[in-house]
Structure formats: C-alpha cells, structure tokens
Specification:
Length: 179
C-alpha cells in the first residue's frame, strides 16, 4: 500500500512566494492605472471648464471692444465692468485661494501686467449653472480656478490640488496636458 505524502513544505513556500510576487505586481500596476485614471478625469473636467470659460471670455472680449486702449478711462472702466459681467464664478482679488501652490500671488493678480486678466473661483454650483454636472469644485476635490484674459480672449484652468507626477506637482491644464 502506497502512503500519500502530500505537499512538501518547500513546495508550499515556493507557491506562496510566487503568489506574493504576482500580487505585488498586480497591486503596483493597479495603483498606476488608478493614478492615470485620476489624471485623465481631472484633465477631462478641466477641458470642459475651459470650453465653457472660452464661451464667456469671448462674449466678454466682444463687450470690451478692439479699441479699448484708445478710449477714455471712464469708457474703459465701463466696458471692463460690462465685460466682467459675462464671466462666471467669484472674482479672486487676493492670492488666498491659491495657498502658495500655484505660483500665483496677490502681486501677480493685481500687477500692472495683469491688466484685463482676472481670476475666478468656480464652485460646484457655478459648474452646475454653466451646464457641467457631476464635477465637484470644493476644498476636498480642489477648487477650479479660471484665469480669464479679456483682451486676448484666452482661458487657463487651474485646480488647487493638481496632480503629482514624479517629484513635481502640476496645477494648470496646460501643464497637465503635457504629462
């Protein structure tokens, strides 16, 4: 009669080691996929916000007019106020929302070189009002900030949390698109 010897301790240890190696590879790959998914989700949200922001900045640019530098100060102020009325969100007049993360300071916001450039914080409700649903803009998910350039009719979108790639943190859509 043959005796069933079963599995040896060495075979059991080798099997467990192979399973652990496979599990660690899977977890590492899974983490990379999750991180890439978060980056793509943020990028998509920022692209949607930029597209909507572009609509509003083009309306504002029309209100500003092409001859803005040639008009009197009172007329210029009136046109800028009308143009700013087309923009969505809450205007940021100080750098507090950025908390030093975005390399945007109060001096940048209020500098002479920033003429016709305005920063607006977009809340979740603002996003819903402009037709973007299921996107959160808050402390937990990072605030979305739109930089409107009225004169050039351009828009840049920032997220206060951004994404980390390697040792560098990226906050603007332009930088995130280049990842």
């Amino acid at each position: 009669m043959k005796k069933n010897k079963g599995i040896t301790m060495i075979a059991l240890v080798l099997t467990i080691m192979v399973l652990l190696i496979l599990a660690s590879i899977s977890i590492g790959t899974g983490n990379n996929v999750i991180q890439q998914s978060k980056i793509e989700n943020l990028k998509t949200n920022m692209l949607l916000i930029r597209a909507k922001g572009k609509e509003y900045v083009e309306k504002a640019n029309f209100e500003l007019g092409t001859d803005i530098d040639k008009v009197e100060e009172t007329e210029k102020s009136k046109r800028v106020a009308t143009a700013k009325g087309e923009l969505k969100g809450q205007e940021i007049n100080d750098g507090s929302i950025f908390e030093g993360n975005l390399n945007i300071t109060e001096e940048n916001i209020n500098s002479d070189n920033a003429q016709y450039i305005y920063y607006y914080k977009i809340t979740t409700q603002d996003l819903i009002n402009i037709g973007i649903v299921n996107v959160d803009s808050d402390q937990k998910n990072g605030w979305y900030i739109i930089k409107y350039n009225l004169k050039n009719a351009t828009v840049e979108v920032y997220n206060t949390l951004g994404v980390k790639s390697g040792e560098t943190q990226y906050y603007s859509l332009s930088d995130i698109q280049n990842l």
